[in-house]
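Q: Please design a sequence for this.
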């Protein structure tokens, strides 16, 4: 980056952050996922359970990305989680759903191989970047929370708020 003595260095630093860092927050991450990665042509394909799984992958990715902003509290250090991890997870989900659905309108969430999907995400796609045991436990707990058959229940809560909030 070129420096000019007439331009304050603090302005350059702030501009760099403004240009290269995506907006923070879960909502911004979800919007980015649904405008850049998940298209209606992909998410609206049958079986209909695909769209729920796509949302869960987007939500999970948003939570993982947001925790990076609070290093060393969210994670013990900064990891290189990025959009390609989300795309890889979406591709794995689509492959499983396509193999199971084979033209059907719906599939039973009990029939989705949740253990295999959780293992793939927590040990290979996202977990392959983690080298800290504590961070690995956090990732595994997030994967176990978001990728289970209970997410198809009407009363499933992605976020547990304390009473009175």
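A: Design:
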């Amino acid at each position: 980056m070129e420096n000019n003595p007439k331009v304050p260095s603090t302005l350059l630093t702030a501009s760099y952050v403004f240009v290269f860092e995506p907006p923070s927050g879960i909502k911004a991450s979800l919007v980015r996922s649904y405008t850049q990665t998940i298209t209606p042509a992909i998410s609206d394909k049958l079986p209909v359970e695909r769209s729920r799984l796509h949302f869960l992958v987007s939500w999970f990715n948003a939570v993982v990305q947001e925790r990076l902003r609070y290093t060393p509290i969210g994670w013990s250090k900064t990891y290189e989680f990025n959009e390609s991890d989300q795309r890889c997870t979406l591709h794995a989900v689509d492959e499983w759903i396509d193999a199971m659905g084979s033209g059907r309108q719906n599939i039973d969430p009990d029939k989705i191989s949740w253990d295999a999907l959780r293992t793939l995400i927590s040990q290979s796609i996202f977990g392959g970047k983690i080298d800290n045991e504590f961070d690995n436990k956090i990732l595994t707990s997030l994967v176990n929370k978001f990728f289970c058959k209970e997410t198809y229940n009407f009363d499933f809560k992605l976020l547990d708020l304390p009473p009175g909030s």
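Q: Thanks. Anything notable?
A: Residues 121 and 127 are 7 Å apart (CA to CA). The mean pLDDT is 88.
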